[in-house]
Amino acid sequence: MAGIVVAMLVAGLLPSWWCGRDADSWFRGDPARVRGLAEESVAFEVEDDRRRATGSAGVIDGMWGLLAHQMTALGLAQVCLAHPEWRERYAPVVTRAATKSLLPEMRSVFTDAWHGEDGAIHLDSTNGHAYLSYPALALGMARLIDPAFPADLATRHDALIASYERRLLASPTGLLDTFPGEAYPTDVAAVAAAIAVHGRATGIDHTAVLSHWAQQVRAVQIDRDTGLVIQRMGVNGRAHDAPRASGTGLAAYFVGFADRALAEELATGLFGQERSFLGFSAIHEYGDGYHGAGDMDSGPLILGKSVAATGFALAPARSFGHHDVFTRLYRTANLVGLPLRSGTRLRFATGGVIGNALLLAFLTSGPELAR
User: Fold this and answer.
1) Residue 4 located in a structural domain
2) What torsion do the CA atoms of 226, 229, 233, 238 make, to the nearest 10 degrees?
3) Which of 5, 48, 162, 359 is 20 to 30 Å from the Cα of 236, by its Cα?
């Protein structure tokens, strides 16, 4: 009988110990692990540069390319902030990745949805074009850490941020549409993040627009019962979807660039969705009283738990010092992601390029972002 009990204890505890053995190192920002994943991201950008220059197959464009290059830029920029001694190596890659996130082919699906109106060109439009917040934020982080950031790109960045500031101040709900008639609070959180980082990089005071946006997030975009942001809305503030954890998790990361207090409020709602078993955690996608299917935002839902939201939650868990939550979430990410080392590089085998870029950004997220 004692042997059975011991075997059950081992079976229950060993997987969580094994999958969580690196969690503390990531939480502390251990240079060896951070640099390994950073080098994997550099390798992706170098190979992408080569393929674009030679016209080779395998280039990632469209929405996924936009996300891959943006998150690579954010993750490497965060690494530079935490490790200034690595800035000389990574800052040029940050700028290249951010620049590629602004290529026309990255936003073609959005331009098509807006009947040919390209938000990066039609800056005087009254339409929101909130998707451009992703390259705008990446450009801001590149500008913040790269002393060689090109002057012409800075001029373009200034114009994009000015257009967002004008549109956001004019929005009574603090919402801008990504697609015609569809606003995503998460995308608008990225707009606010881009504006805030622009202020850090240039010294321009954006307090008025950021205060207006934060007030409307609390008044319109957060579900009072669950503490989660509503996934999709009309620009008039009407809900088009349920309050969900995937949008809240990614929003909490972006909001951390702009408003620490608001980001912590979102994190509290997000962590209320944590479900744990044998030392592993996952984030339940829908708030109490709501249900639905998985989609491209949440990833597959497994018994209602979101793969995406679980990964997103790593960022606020680390940024706000929730060591135990971070450890439980990391165990799950480790189990699903299958980290592998190859020389000096570290990658998560099942996530591919986008998964590695996302994890670099979330695993290196920290309080220095909103300084």
Assistant:
1) no
2) 40
3) 162
Q: What is the domain-level CATH number for residue 189?
A: 1.50.10.10
Task: At 86, list the tokens.
Answer: 């690595």
Domain that holds residue 265: 22-51+60-370
In a domain, 9, yes or no: no
14 pLDDT band, cuts 50/70/90, is: low
Residue holding tokens 């997030």?
Answer: 217
Domains in the chain, number = 1
**Cα separation, 237 vs 171, whole angstroms:** 10
Contacts of 87 (CB under 8 A, 6+ apart): 80, 145
Segments in the chain forming alpha helices (H) = 2-19, 23-28, 31-54, 62-82, 87-101, 108-113, 133-145, 151-170, 185-202, 207-216, 245-255, 260-271, 307-312, 314-319, 323-337, 352-363
Would you call 180 helix, strand, or coil by DSSP? coil
> pLDDT tens-digit profile of 250-265?
999 999 999 999 999 9
Residue 210 contacts residue 192 (beta carbons within 8 Å):
yes
Examine residue 97 and state whether it is found in any structural domain, yes or no: yes
SS3 (DSSP) at 244: strand
